[in-house]
C-alpha cells in the first residue's frame, strides 16, 4: 500500500488569518507540534520566536531534527503549567485527543498562558452531544473528543 502524504497546507490559511489578530510578534507555542513543522515554519516567517510541545518522544525528536534552533518540550499538556507566556498559541489537531474531563482545565490553562492581546487558535471536532471515543488507528491508543454543548 502506498504511503499517503500529509497535506502541509492543512490549517495554514486559518493560521494566517489568526496571526493577523496578534498584537505582538513575540513568543509562540505550537501544542502537539508533531513532525511536519508547518506551523513552526509559518511562525518563523511571521517573525515569532516559536516553541513546540508534544507528548510523543518520537514527534519531539523529529521536530528537533527539522528545526534544531527551536525549543521543543516533551510534555503532557494535561500536566503542569505551560513553559512560558505567549503572544500566539496554536493547538491544531491536538487537544481534541485529551480526555473529556481535561478539556476545560487545559483550555483554561492555555488561555491563561497568553500575554495581553495574545491569540489562541485550535481545532476541535463537534457533535450534538459531548462524549469521547478511544482507538488505536494511528498506533498508540488515544482519545478523540466529541465536543458538544459543554457550557465552556
The count of helical stretches stands at: 4
CATH class: Alpha Beta
Enter the CATH topology name: Rossmann fold
Mean pLDDT: 83
Straight-line distance between termini: 42 Å
* Tally of discrete structural domains: 1
Q: What share of residues is helical?
A: 10-25%
Q: What this model shows, in words?
A:
Keywords: Methyltransferase, Transferase. GO terms for molecular function: methyltransferase activity. Residues 29-118 form the Methyltransferase domain. This protein is of the alpha/beta class and 152 residues long. It has a single domain (12-146), classed as Vaccinia Virus protein VP39 (Rossmann fold), CATH 3.40.50.150. It has helices at residues 12-19, 38-45, 57-66, 103-112, and strands at residues 27-31, 49-54, 71-74, 86-91, 114-122, 131-135, 142-146. The strands form two sheets. It has a five-stranded parallel sheet. Strands 6-7 form a two-stranded antiparallel ribbon. It is globular and about 35 Å long. The model is unreliable at 137-152 (pLDDT under 50).
List keywords for this structure.
alpha/beta; Rossmann fold; 5-stranded parallel β-sheet; two-stranded antiparallel ribbon
Amino acid at each position: 500500500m502506498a504511503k499517503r502524504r500529509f497535506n502541509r497546507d492543512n490549517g495554514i490559511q486559518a493560521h494566517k488569518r489568526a496571526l493577523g489578530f496578534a498584537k505582538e510578534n513575540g513568543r509562540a507555542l505550537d501544542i502537539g507540534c508533531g513532525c511536519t513543522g508547518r506551523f513552526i515554519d509559518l511562525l518563523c516567517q511571521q517573525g515569532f520566536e516559536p516553541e513546540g510541545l508534544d507528548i510523543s518522544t518520537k514527534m519531539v525528536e523529529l521536530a528537533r531534527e527539522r528545526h534544531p534552533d527551536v525549543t521543543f518540550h516533551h510534555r503532557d499538556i494535561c500536566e503542569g503549567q505551560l513553559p512560558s507566556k505567549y503572544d500566539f498559541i496554536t493547538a491544531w489537531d491536538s487537544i481534541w485527543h485529551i480526555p473529556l474531563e481535561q478539556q476545560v482545565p487545559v483550555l483554561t490553562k492555555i488561555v491563561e498562558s497568553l500575554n495581553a492581546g495574545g491569540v489562541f487558535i485550535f481545532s476541535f471536532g463537534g457533535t450534538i452531544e459531548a462524549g469521547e471515543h478511544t482507538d488505536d488507528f494511528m498506533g498508540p491508543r488515544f482519545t478523540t473528543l466529541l465536543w458538544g454543548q459543554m457550557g465552556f
